[in-house]
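3.2 Worked example (two chains)
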Amino acid sequence: EMRWCLLGLFLILGACGGHPPQPSRGVVEADLGSWKYRRYQNVLDIEVWVEGNKAEAYTASYVAEAAEKRARCCDDKDVVNVFVTRYEKDDGVLRETVKLARRLAAEGGYQVEETKIKGARALAINGHGESWVMWPAKKHVIKVGGRGRDNVPDAMVASYAERYPSVLPGGALEGPLPPGPQDKGKPDKEEYDPNAPKPDL
C-alpha cells in the first residue's frame, strides 16, 4: 500500500517538474514578479541572422512595479525589454550567436563576458549606455535588458531561461567556433588571425 502511495507521489511531482512551456508568441505576456508586462511586438529585425534558416522575432517590455507607483514614470532604467528570435531549425543558431558576441567584443565600447545567472550560461553585453544578457537556446536566441541600464535583473533572465534553457558552451568566446550546418562532418575552417594572415586558397 505504502509503495503505491509513494509511486503516485513521484508521478505527481514528475508531472509538475520540468520547464514551463514556451509561449506561442515567443515572449511571456504576463507580469513576472515585480516586473509588470506592458507591450508586445512582432518585429522584422533579426539581430542574429542565420543563413538559410528563417526566423521571426518577438519583443515584450516590462516596467518595474516601484517605478509605476512614482509620480513620474518611467525612465529607461525602469524598463526591461526581452527579444525572442525563433528559428525554423536549430542549425547555425549557436554558431551565429557566438560570432555576434565576438564581433561586439572586438568593437570599441562594448564589454562582453560569459556569465552564469541562476544556473543559465549566458553572455553579458555592456556598453554604449546599454546592458543586455543574451543566450542561444534550441531554435531560439533570447536577449534581455535595455538602454539606459547598467544591469539586467537576474529574476527576468531566470524566468526566460526556464522556458528557453541555454545551450551556450563554456569558453564560447575563446574556443573554436561551434560548427555551422555547412561544417557538419568537416573540420572547422580556421578563423582569420590578423597577426598571422594566411591566403585563402
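3.2.1 Second chain
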Amino acid sequence: MLDEPEQAMAFLAEMRARVTDPSAAHTFDALAATFDMNAGDPRRAVEVAAPVLASSSAPELAIAWAAATATLASARLGRFGDVGPLANRGLSAQHPGLLRFTIGLGEITTSLMTETVMRAQRRARTFMEFSGLQEPGRAIGEVLLARTLMASGELATAIALLREAAAA
C-alpha cells in the first residue's frame, strides 16, 4: 500500500469489479481483507474475510490470506476464542508461506492477553526455529519474539532483536 492506502484500496476494488471468476474474486476479497486490516479496520477485515473462509470454491492462497488476516484481526479485536480455529485454517492451507507469521502474531497476541508471557515466548521461539537462518522468516520471527520480550520487561534483549530484524 506504500503510504497510499486509499489509492491501493481503490485500485483493488476496481480490479475486483472486473473479475467474474469466483476463484479470482475470492483471492481479491482475501487481499482486500488484508488491506482493511493494514489500514486499521480489523472489524471490516474480519467481515471481508468471512465469506472467503466460508466458500468451498476459494483457492488455497485465498484461504491462507483470509485466515491469516482474520486471525490477527480477531486477536486485535479481543475475539480470542476465534483465533485458534482461524489459525488452524490458515496453517492447513496448502502453502501458507510467510502468512504463517501473520497467524503467529495473532496467536502470540492472544497468548499475551489470555495466558502467560512465557507461553507466548515459547510460541514465538517456534517461529524462529521454523525459519532457521532463512530471511525474511528469521527477521519476522525476531520481531515476534521481541514483542513477547517487551511484554516481560526484557527491553534490552528486545531492542537487540529488533535491530537485527531491521538490518535484515
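3.3 Remarks
Residues 31 and 154 are 35 Å apart (CA to CA).
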